Amino acid sequence: MNDEIGRRLREAAETHQPDHDRILARVQRGVTATTVRHRAPKPARSWPKVVLAGSAAAGILAVAGLAVAGVVPVAPARPEATTTLAVPTTGVTPSTSTTPAARPTGGSALPPASGHPDRPTTGRSSPAGATPAAPVGSRVSDGPLSAQGSVDPHSTVYWAQSTLALDTTQPLSALTVEVRITQTGSVQSTGQWQTGPADDFTTTAQESDGVVVYRWELKPGRTAPAAQHVFAVQYNHTAGTRDAGADGYDVQATSADGVHTVQGRFTRAK
Fold first, then answer.
1. CA 93 → CA 17, 89, 257, distances in Å?
2. What is the pTM of this model?
3. CATH number of 139-268
4. Would you say 192 and 126 are in contact if contact means Cβ atoms under 8 Å apart?
5. What are phi and psi for residue 15, nearest 5 degrees?
């Protein structure tokens, strides 16, 4: 009997065309009828009838559940986690700046040019190993000697320095250097110096006949090496730009090939 009931239920479910409204009404009636029947006392049924009735009710409820499921829309499940879309790369490398970085310079920066030097004292000598700036003006030469005279560009309206650069390609066993500064007004010696050792020379400075004469004389037994030698004289003068056109120098030296002399004048450095 159970197989027959199951077969009939399956055939009914396959051929059944659900009417939603009627199904809902039937479900409601079935629920109400079941409640009333349980409340109202009735005589006990036989076991086969009870089984048949229960199976029929279960079938009706199952069909009704399928119909209701078809009518009531089901909201889609919300994703548990946010999905991140991967954006494919284009393979293009972002452009980089073509401006080269500044390269660091090697070594320390050169110090700024110094201002006017302090007024030197008498007998001042140049620092050891210092290389004087190349003088400006006409150069004169004789044998191994060549000389050039200029007024130092750091001279002021009250004070000046005249510099003589003497080059020799041979050692000198005798050397006398004279620098003559014409008295143009208040010219007064403030010192003199040379690049050679001070102990190698006898130095003097005196005014005679309107000219201040500075003199260096190499001491006997001393030798001036083949090199550039600088002789500088310093003096005060009347305020203003001084005319050095009448100033001059005279050098006499002895080398292995004889005695040589150079003479010249001083030109203001530009």
1. 65, 10, 78
2. 0.51
3. 2.60.40.680
4. no
5. -90, -10
3-state helix, strand, coil split of the chain in percent (to 5) is 25, 30, 45
262 — phi, psi (to 5°)?
-130, 140
Instruction: Count other Cβ atoms within 10 Å, centred on residue 145.
Output: 21
Which CA distances in Å does 12 have to 49, 54, 56, 142, 198? Answer: 20, 17, 12, 142, 138
What are φ and ψ of residue 143, in 5° steps?
55, -125
Q: Identify residue 248 by its one-letter amino acid code.
A: G
Distance CA 145, CA 135 (A): 16
**Cα atoms in the Cβ-side hemisphere of radius 13 Å centred on 248:** 7
Local confidence pLDDT in tens for the 270 residues of the chain: 678 887 888 877 777 666 777 777 777 777 665 554 545 455 545 444 544 444 444 454 444 443 434 444 444 444 444 444 443 444 444 344 443 333 333 333 333 333 333 434 333 433 333 334 434 458 999 999 999 999 999 999 999 999 999 999 999 999 999 999 999 999 999 999 999 999 999 999 999 999 999 999 999 999 999 999 999 999 999 999 999 999 999 999 999 999 999 999 998 755
- Tokens 């008498």 belong to which residue? 122
Question: In angstroms, rounded to a whole number, what is the distance separating the alpha carbons of residues 150 and 181?
Answer: 12
Residues 6+ apart with CB under 8 A from 241: 157
The token pair that represents 21 in the structure block: 């409204």
Domain ranges of the chain: 2-71, 139-268
Measure the CA–CA gap between 255 and 261, rounded to whole angstroms: 11
Q: At what angle do helices 2-15 and 47-71 cross, to 10 degrees?
A: 20
Within the chain, residue ranges assigned H as helices are 2-15, 20-39, 47-71
